[in-house]
Every structure is written in structure tokens, then in C-alpha cells.
Amino acid sequence: MSVRRIVTVSAGLSTPSSSRLLADRLTAATERSLGDRGIRARVRTVELRDLAHDVMNAMVTQVPTGELPGVLSDLAEADGVIAVTPVFNASYSGLFKSFFDVVDQGALDAVPVLVGATGGSPRHSLVLEHALRPLFSYSRALVVPTGVYAASEDWGADDEGARELNERIERAGRQLALLAADHERSGRDPYDEPVAFEDLMSGLGT
């Protein structure tokens, strides 16, 4: 079974956070869709609040330290990225922006990215189009057509509201899975994901 690497980035500041909840649901939808295609997802979930000091240090010194180098390395090797931020002042959070400011230029070139955001009011949903999509387009990422915004009221929505949010999540997950399935990282090591021994033997007679 082939493998695709998915890195999920959540910029939620509280524990638990609605941003992490949305990130987890988008990740699960992507995993399911990849599984339907016979592809296994290898997921790393990154909580930016745990990296806040490392991110700020890297902004000042231009040298990533602590856990940040490993996260940046995984991001550069990703076949797909899920990026979710809370909305502050009608835009992404400062921590979210600072993290992607320290990502190497070109690391997201042609990488599929699914954008998501959470906020208190549905009127902030346009943050997906006027802030998040331009940010990743500037990085030359492939932003999936469907972004997902979840307002506070969506989490306690009635059956229809919950169904609409779930449909957006599933559609976005399918779109990311489709792009990630076809993504080829530059310099992919052909021995990085060797075929399992049982798969090699499955076509041989006894």
C-alpha cells in the first residue's frame, strides 16, 4: 500500500480548541478518502501553541531551534497540508502567520493545502478567501477549492447545520486526498516506502 504524508497545523490557543477540533475532523476526512483509494496516510499534527517560543526565536535569529526544525522538515516532505487558524481581527492569528513566515521559501511549492478557520461569527467566513487562500497562493501551494470555516454556532448546530458542516469537511477532505494521491515530492526516495514483504509474496504460488 502506498503512503502519503499529511501534516496538520492547528493554531488554536486553548485546550481544547475549536481549531484543533476542526483540524482533526479535516484530517480524518482526508484519511478516509485516501483509504478509499488504497493509500495509507501518515499524519503529523502540529499544535503551534507548543512551538510559540521556537517560532518567535526563529523570527528573530533566523535559526530554528527546539522542535521546530523537525516540524519544518516534515512540512517540506509533506504530500498534503491541512492548515487551520482561529480568526483574530478578521484575519489569521499572528502565531499562524509567524509560523508560515519561518517556513523555507519553496517548501510548499506545488504542495496541496486545505485551509480552515474557526471564529465566533459566520460573518468571518470570508477570511478563507481574503487571507488564507492568498497566503498559500503566494507560497505557490495548490490550495484545494473547498475551504472550511466553522463558527461557534456550527458546533452546537441542529441536524441540518451539523450536516452542512460535515458535508463541507468531507468534500474538502476528498479534494485534498485527490491532490495528495497524485503528488510527487521532488527527490522522493524510491526506498522510502518499500513494498511490504507480504504484498511481494501475495502474487506467488506455493
TrEMBL record:
It comes from the Bacteria. InterPro entries: CE1759_FMN_reduct, Flavoprotein-like_sf, FMN_Rdtase-like_dom, NAD(P)H-dep_FMN_reductase. GO terms for molecular function: oxidoreductase activity. Gene3D superfamilies: 3.40.50.360. PANTHER family: FMN REDUCTASE (NADPH) (PTHR43408:SF2). NCBIfam families: LLM_duo_CE1759. This is FMN reductase.
